[in-house]
Task: structure prediction
Amino acid sequence: MLNTIDSKTALKNLFHRTPIVQLNALCRVLKTQSHMSVFRRMKPLGYLTSYTHRSRFYTLHDIPHFDAFGLWFYGNVGFCQSGTVKAAVKELVDKSEAGRTQQELQNILRVRVQNALLDHARAGRVGRKAIGQRNWLYLNADASLAARQWDRRQAQKKRAAVLIGPLTAAMTIEVLMEVLQFSRPRVLVTPEQVVQRLHHQGVSVPLEHVQWVFERYELGKKGGPNSLRSRH
Result:
């Protein structure tokens, strides 16, 4: 294995060539098979582990440029300032102006968040309030802050209803048909993608309406868009 000084140089050169790497590349550049030795060499530099791809990717702490949500993506590999999906979910809910739905969190984080939300809700780390028949709005655990988030959400819905008009049956059918056509095994379709695909076909459906359809029919959750097919 390389000594401490050579390891530092080798690691900096590696991350200069590619911002994210997997463990096997780190082992090769440090000339060791010991994972613990790799982490010991990485620790003084400061490193982050991806919250996507089963934490298989690493980067140095000074490489990411985090967005307003505290996230950074290199391609489809995601890193978060909070460290884990579970921590990121709680922070996104706590700091939101009007709470967050499961679908909204999944759109932001680009991964499934159901288990993290359930764990937080059961432990009382976040609150939740029913919206629709089977959906929840996740809120701050502090009751007074949660009440403000809920009020803002209701105000947003009223403003949106005035601005974009009613959701018609024809719009709902267009959305559902597009989700069915988009369906692929293990592919998580998002409302934004549906809006874009419909737009290319000359069909205009506001994002808010598509999001409502996703919540009403529980699209984008466990089983993905194929869950819609399983009901028939």
